[in-house]
Amino acid sequence: MVICKYKGDKLLSSIKRLLLFCLCRWYRNGNRIIVHKKDGKVVECFNYFGLSVRLKGKNSIIEIYEPIKFQRRLLVNRSHIKVEGDNNYICIFSSCRSIHNIQAKAFGSNNKLIIGKNWYQNGFCFFDFGLLDNSNIVIGDNCMFGQDTKFMLGDYHSVLDLKTNKCLNIPRKGINIGNHVWIARDVRIMKNVTIPDDCIVGAGSNVTKEFSETNCIIAGNPARIVKNNITWDYKNTK
Ligand SMILES: CC(C)(COP(=O)(O)OP(=O)(O)OC[C@H]1O[C@@H](n2cnc3c(N)ncnc32)[C@H](O)[C@@H]1OP(=O)(O)O)[C@@H](O)C(=O)NCCC(=O)NCCS
User: In the list 25, 34, 86, 132, which could disulfide-bond 154, CB 3.0-4.6 Å?
Assistant: First the structure.
């Protein structure tokens, strides 16, 4: 009898999960929020605690790896993902540190935002894909971002060649941030930017181009290399 009840419970919970899965798919127009639990289980959900998600297009996926915690101090100060286009993909890997107020906005389609493991983030951080299609923002593992960091992939408006009327500001590449990169406060990262592993971006910098040298400080407006042969640590070493 006990075995029978156990099997019945298992079947019921499988049916419940299947129904929830179908409901999510239908209700969300093929948009999905997939959560990878600590024990390896994969579940679909309508929303994730502390993260407000608005998916308007079709077939976009938000994938979240636990353990992760989205800090929710006030209703207005919580993390928000707004996706209006189709087939966009956002993946946030696990972190032992709380995530404070991230915002991601994509009006176009087929864009990707990937945030690596152990992201340490402290305050408002904005990923703006604008109206672009087929663009990527990739953040490596063990990165640390200060308050008010903004990643702007698209310019929203065109810069045109006076003679040919050709558009001059089409993004060629996405934004690539390596592993173990510290981005300090009030930084703007624009299109086509690569920051290699173990670099620091100084406070208030405006980064507009691709860098290839690891272990350096990049700072200023427009940002340039100001120091080489460095690394950094989370701890405040006095
Ligand atoms: C990046 C940082 C850590 C570098 O500190 P540092 O190693 O002591 O660097 P220095 O002060 O020796 O500066 C080296 C050069 O870079 C320049 N520089 C440093 N930071 C700069 C910045 N943010 N913007 C422009 N130039 C900068 C300095 O003027 C100096 O130029 P010089 O060689 O022509 O004189 C520091 O400048 C910084 O931005 N700190 C703020 C970190 C922050 O936001 N913390 C909040 C929590 S994430």
Answer: 132
Say what the pTM is: 0.88
In the reported structure, the alpha carbon of residue 151 is separated from the centroid of ligand 1 by a whole-number distance in angstroms of 20
Q: Does ligand 1 come within 6 angstroms of the Cβ of 185?
A: yes
**Alpha carbon distance 198, 26 (integer Å):** 44
Residue nearest to atom 18 of ligand 1 (CA): 219
- List, in sequence order, the alpha helices (H) in the chain: 2-27
What gap in Å lies between CA 86 and CA 89, rounded to an integer? 9
Name the CA radius of gyration of the chain, rounded: 21
Q: Would you say the CB of residue 183 lies under 6 angstroms from ligand 1?
A: no
Query: What are the φ and ψ backbone dihedral angles of 8, each rounded to 5 degrees?
Result: -60, -45
Q: Please, which residues have CB within 8 angstroms of residue 142's CB and are 6 or more apart in sequence?
A: 116, 117, 118, 119, 120, 179, 180
Ligand 1 atom closest to the Cα of residue 220 is 25
Note the pLDDT tens digit of each residue in 179-234. Answer: 999 999 999 999 999 999 999 999 999 999 999 999 999 999 999 999 999 999 98
The single-letter DSSP state of residue 29 is T
Q: What are the distances in angstroms from CA 179 to CA 139, 176, 215, 236? A: 7, 10, 11, 20
Structural domains present in the chain: 47-228 (2.160.10.10)
Residue segments in the chain with a per-residue pLDDT below the cut of 70: 1-6, 21, 24-27, 73-77
Amino acid at 23: L
Residue 146 Cβ contacting ligand 1 at under 6 Å: yes
Compute, in angstroms, the gap from residue 144 CA to the centroid of ligand 1. Answer: 16
